[in-house]
Design goal:
The structure holds two protein chains of two kinds.
Chain A (H helix, E strand, L loop, with lengths): L4 E3 L2 E4 L5 E6 L6 E7 L5 E8 L2 E5 L7 E4 L6 E5 L8 E8 L10 E2 L3 E5 L1
Parallel strand pairs in A: 2-11
Antiparallel strand pairs in A: 1-3, 3-8, 4-5, 4-9, 5-6, 7-8, 9-10, 9-11
Chain B lengths: L3 E3 L2 E5 L4 E6 L6 E7 L6 E7 L4 E4 L2 E6 L4 E6 L8 E8 L6 E2 L3 E6 L1
Parallel strand pairs in B: 2-11
Antiparallel strand pairs in B: 1-3, 3-8, 4-5, 4-9, 6-7, 7-8, 9-10, 9-11
Chain lengths: 116, 109
């Protein structure tokens, strides 16, 4: 069964450093998302991406964050200058049909980011 | 605005039933239910569409009351594998999911 994959599984970084989190969505999916989950809290939407541009973003997704689809398979989240409060599990998700509001979003296994 | 889930936590014995509720103050297009085990990604369970439908597979089913903007997840004859945190994610417009705070379900033998 196709699945969303993410690398790395864990990332430890120093405050102020840049990190890039990578995702490979399911191959025929066209809509991509990043969510994050601070330890013990709910999953929060960050950004959605379709047709090589941001479709929607939350207030969490400020200028420190950017997303990119550098090639036909990868989808990345970059945090330019990490802060302690960026420590969280970051989930990538993808869905097949952006035209449908009821499409299932499939989540990857997550990248646990720890900012020291 | 995030949906409100209740209860916050529930402990069951194997074979018992549970209901988890999710309500929103906004008009919703759909409600998505996920289960997350500790340290793992949320796993999709089902989507409920506006129109008041009910869905189910195995011993897990759900309903969506469009008038009340409320969805309920029903777990019958619970198994140990049902343990985890259940999140509802709601769609108002666009494709983003807004998740509730989660309901921790623990099934004991």
């Amino acid at each position: 069964e196709p699945e969303v994959t993410q690398t790395p599984s864990h990332q430890v970084t120093q405050m102020g450093q840049e990190v890039i989190l990578r995702c490979v969505p399911i191959s025929n999916h066209l809509y991509f998302y990043w969510y994050r989950q601070i330890l013990g809290q709910k999953v929060e939407f960050l950004v959605s991406f379709y047709n090589n541009e941001i479709s929607e973003k939350s207030e969490i997704f400020d200028d420190q964050f950017s997303v990119e689809r550098p090639d036909g398979s990868n989808f990345t989240l970059k945090i330019r200058s990490t802060k302690l409060e960026d420590s969280a599990m970051y989930f990538c998700a993808s869905s097949e049909d952006p035209g449908s509001l009821q499409e299932t979003q499939y989540f990857g296994p997550g990248t646990r980011l720890l900012v020291l | 605005q995030q949906p409100v889930q209740s209860p916050q936590a529930v402990i069951l014995r194997e074979g018992e039933d549970a209901v988890i509720n999710c309500s929103s103050s906004k008009a919703l297009y759909s409600v998505h239910w996920y289960r997350q085990k500790h340290g793992e990604a949320p796993v999709f369970l089902m989507i409920l569409l506006k129109g008041g439908e009910q869905k189910g597979h195995d011993k897990i089913s759900a309903s969506f009351n469009e008038k009340k903007q409320q969805s309920s997840l029903y777990l019958t004859a619970s198994q140990l594998s049902y343990s985890g945190t259940y999140f509802c994610g709601t769609q108002e417009y666009g494709n983003k999911l807004v998740f509730g705070a989660g309901t921790i379900l623990r099934v004991k033998s």
